[in-house]
Design brief:
Elements: H1 2-8, E1 14-18, E2 21-26, H2 40-49, E3 55-60, H3 77-83, E4 87-92, E5 101-104, E6 107-111, E7 126-131, E8 136-143, E9 146-147, E10 152-155
Parallel strand pairs: 2-3, 3-4, 4-6
Antiparallel strand pairs: 1-2, 5-6, 7-8, 8-9, 8-10
Length: 157
């Protein structure tokens, strides 16, 4: 954590808010490259602190819910999600051949392939996420001017 802070000038786990939204970026690996569960205690504490926000978005490199090809199963994950209904989506990396949204219950796990580098999906695109007032999330990939996957709707509450 100290080296990370020195290098990037931010903590290993980070939270912030913008308007009615809260964002959480949590580490899921270490210097050895091991796949780890996110710090559930830290997430639980921070999600509680941001409990007045309407929506929470989590960003994790390694998927914690066994929904990706290269994910981990975190035993405390389901309990965390059940305690915090404001979580609208979990954005994942690592599974560079995934550019879809995988649902686990009503929680979307959003994968974007790989935007940059030369492995994973062959295009250098980006994901568009639309949040609608009825708690619907629409999402699709762009490369860069062409829609790759048609928009799909995911009801998240």
């Amino acid at each position: 954590p100290e080296l990370w802070q020195q290098t990037w000038n931010m903590p290993v786990n980070l939270d912030f808010s913008r308007g009615p939204h809260s964002f959480f970026i949590a580490t899921t690996s270490n210097v050895k490259g091991e796949y780890l569960c996110p710090d559930i205690q830290w997430l639980d504490k921070k999600l509680t602190e941001h409990g007045s926000k309407q929506q929470a978005f989590l960003f994790l490199h390694i998927n914690p819910a066994s929904t990706g090809d290269h994910s981990v199963k975190c035993d405390e994950w389901e309990k965390l999600v059940s305690r915090h209904s404001q979580i609208r989506a979990v954005f994942n990396g690592h599974d560079h051949m995934q550019d879809t949204v995988l649902m686990k219950g009503k929680l979307p796990f959003v994968f974007d392939g790989h935007f940059g580098g030369n492995w994973g999906k062959p295009y250098k695109g980006f994901r568009v996420v639309e949040l609608w007032k009825d708690h619907t999330l629409a999402s699709y990939m762009m490369d860069p001017n062409e829609k790759i996957n048609p928009a799909k709707l995911y009801y998240t509450q």
